[in-house]
Amino acid sequence: QVYVSYSNIAALAHLAAKPGWEITSTLDDVKIWTHEEGDVLSFKVEMQVKIPSYRAFSLLSDFTLRQQWDKHFLTCEVLQAVNEDEKIYHVTSPPMTGHKPRDFVILVSQRQPCKPREPYIVAVKSVTLSSKPPSPEYCRSEILCAGFQIYSVSHSSCTVCYFNQVTSGVMPYLAANLTGSSKSIEDTALECIKFLE
């Protein structure tokens, strides 16, 4: 378990540090980058938020609040609190036309910074839990690596970076998004900022 949570945090740090991110969209408070490697597509959304970093961290690390701003989260329940920094959640997503609704079993690991300029981290990846096998009503999907890095800018503002790495399996959902809608990603980011502030 310790290894899984460490690898969760490490995978997010590794994704964030990859060279070759390309910026695809800039709004005032939201910037979106993408990164392609084989059949894996990653995106990064950077948001400027007018609240202290520790507040953003406490709001973003509690995934039961997520459906207040992210319409891709239909339900979210805690399956297991592993310890105070790790929780396993079951998440369901609304169905896309012609598809069953998707569900995910995810491990969310959170870390506070050890040094002043380091970010708060909330890392997410799919895990298998024998007590929550796939069910016929959902299409069980996988998150390779996702999460937030939250950097303090001043005592009343911070930069929130959201990362998500997806395989070609999730691509049909995102392809719709990336062509017409980095807009959907932007909308979610703006909802996130509104929720945090």
Share in helix = 10-25%
Major sheet attributes: 10 strands, mixed
What is the H level of CATH, i.e. the homologous superfamily?
Answer: START domain
Unreliable stretches (pLDDT < 50, length at least 5) are: 176-181
- The averaged pLDDT comes out at 88
From the structure provided, what is the oligomeric state, counting identical versus distinct chains?
single chain
Q: Would you tell me the structural class of the helices and strands?
A: alpha+beta
> Class in CATH?
Alpha Beta
Our count of helices gives 4
Protein described:
This protein has 197 residues and is of the alpha+beta class. The protein has a single domain, classed as Alpha-D-Glucose-1,6-Bisphosphate, Chain A, domain 4, CATH 3.30.530.20. Helices cover 25% and strands 40% of the residues. Strands 1, 2, 3, 4, 5, 6, 7, 8, 9 and 10 form a ten-stranded mixed β-sheet that branches. A hairpin with a 2-residue loop joins strand 4 and strand 5. The longest helix is centred in the N-terminal third of the chain and has 16 residues. About 3% of the residues have low confidence. One of its GO terms (cellular component) is cytoplasm.
